[in-house]
Design a protein that fits this description.
The protein is mostly helical. Helix content is about 75%, strand content about 0%.
């Protein structure tokens, strides 16, 4: 017997079928990701944004700067499921904008994590060598080749495509679409701190995505008991891993 798959399903049916990453991960991502990026921007806003000032800030305030850059990387890692969730809304009416906007935006998040790895290594040079040597090493290698550099334009334009798609699909209104598109101007690269306008750009991201995250979380039944158990197990396992890595660093290296 041949069964036809309906292309258009009702909203009630659409809330119950499987989709990746799912309502809870997607909704939480839309809330947590932007907040982590905003926290990162606020933690390092007092320091000049260029690399020499960022290295000097780490030398004098290592815990603060480590927290700021860690929040930024975590924000990028946590945000991609939210981007996929937004793409799902846009794709119902404008699949081309959804595909290209989502792909380039996620590519941009991956690129920012790549730069986060370079930032981490630069900060470690301050620890194992000195601030002067670390600054010289970054200065001498700042224009070194890496393939990610040549994708920067597409990484940034992804936010514009998402914003256009969100507006045309009526997922967002004009104000939230413009707020989302403003992420195009967020500086991208190695050891980029917080410019004055960066905080407002990320705040625009929060204005655009957090209400959608709340809507996604509220638009359906509560999580099942099995899902809650899995979430508790994951969080507990991660806490144990972090504690072991802190208490027994030599063991965790092997």
């Amino acid at each position: 017997m041949n069964h036809k798959v309906r292309e258009n399903v009702s909203p009630e049916r659409d809330n119950t079928i499987f989709w990746f990453p799912g309502r809870w991960i997607g909704g939480l991502s839309l809330i947590i990701g932007p907040l982590l990026l905003l926290a990162a921007a606020l933690l390092r806003i007092q320091f000049h944004f260029f690399y020499d000032a960022q290295l000097a800030a780490y030398a004098h305030h290592p815990v603060l700067i480590t927290a700021a850059y860690s929040c930024f990387v975590l924000g990028c890692l946590f945000l991609w499921p939210g981007v996929i969730t937004l793409v799902r809304f846009i794709g119902r009416k404008h699949p081309a904008l959804a595909v290209w906007g989502g792909m380039f935006t996620i590519l941009g998040l991956i690129g920012r994590v790549f730069h986060g790895g370079i930032d981490h290594m630069a900060f470690q040079l301050v620890n194992v060598q000195s601030l002067n040597l670390a600054t010289k090493a970054v200065s001498d290698s700042y224009q070194a080749f890496h393939i990610v550099r040549y994708l920067n334009g597409w990484m940034m334009v992804g936010w514009i495509l998402l914003a256009i798609g969100a507006y045309r699909s009526r997922t967002f209104g004009l104000i939230r679409s413009v707020a989302l598109a403003s992420m195009f101007f967020l500086p991208l690269g190695t050891l980029k701190g917080t410019r004055f306008e960066s905080t407002f750009l990320i705040l625009g991201l929060c204005i655009a995505l957090i209400p959608l995250g709340i809507k996604v979380l509220r638009d359906g039944p509560p999580p099942s008991r099995k899902a809650i158990y899995w979430a508790i197990a994951f969080v507990a396992g991660e806490i144990i891993f972090i504690l072991l890595s802190i208490l027994f660093p030599e063991i965790m290296r092997h």
